[in-house]
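Practice set, problem 2.
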Amino acid sequence: MLIALGVVAIIAVYVIFVYNGLVRARQMAEEAWSGIDVQLKRRADLIPNLIETVKGYAAHEKGTFEEVVKLRNQAQAVPTGDVAGRAQAEGLLSQALGKLFALAEAYPDLKANQNFAELQASLETLESEIQMSRRYYNGAARDLNIKVESFPSNLLAGPFGFSKRDYFEITNEADRAVPSVKF
């Protein structure tokens, strides 16, 4: 009888240990996704200021401005938990921003504008932070996915409602390029 109680106690401790590991991994993935979301929100907030600055110099380039604003709004409309959808929308937005910066190349006065230079530097910094956040999220998602799929933790993951997380990936090679502007 004592041996049976000991085995039950060991199994209970093991279940608690595995469950807590799964909870920790899920929380890390959620916290990592929150970090990406914060950076993407900062970028979305910066875009209107950038557009307004460029508009003053290139008012006749209305189509480019409208495209950036449309894609920004689409990216913000993607539900928070839709990692794949958000990655696709943000990739399209990055392409449109690249066009905006390419447009700025044609206007030397704009490139010399202090406000534009500051906005561009802020956007470059944000792009780097977004890249770091993506790597952190993907690492946290990988850790959770390993726990969800690995034996014996997979025996507990399903019944307790733990599931794999999508990676924040960019599928279009053109979307991978960060817009660059040369002065």
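Problem 2, part (b): a different protein.
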Amino acid sequence: MPLRVNGVTRRWLNKIDEVDYLPEWLRPLKTAPDFLNMKEGDGRNQALFNYILTLQSEGFSKDSIKNIINIINKYILKEPLEQRELDTILRDEAFLKPLFYQKSKFLR
């Protein structure tokens, strides 16, 4: 990152509390379905349901996963799901699947 932009020296951050942390939902993952191009009839519900397992294996909490799925529905899908469909996908039973891996590490 350049220290000078258009002849103006940029301010240097010296304290850690001056830096904003990246929101958890912006953390990059290795795999994710192509939610941008999904529309009704393309298996959106199943893709979102399956993505719960992916997010769990990456170490996301239940609340974080629900937030991420809501963000995907609201801002990424071309045609957002109705709330009742989203509630079905995010039901408590969706989070009961046993995990064998977390962040590519085998759990004992």
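Answer key, part (b): The chain is about 35% helix and 5% strand. The first helix runs from residue 44 to 57.
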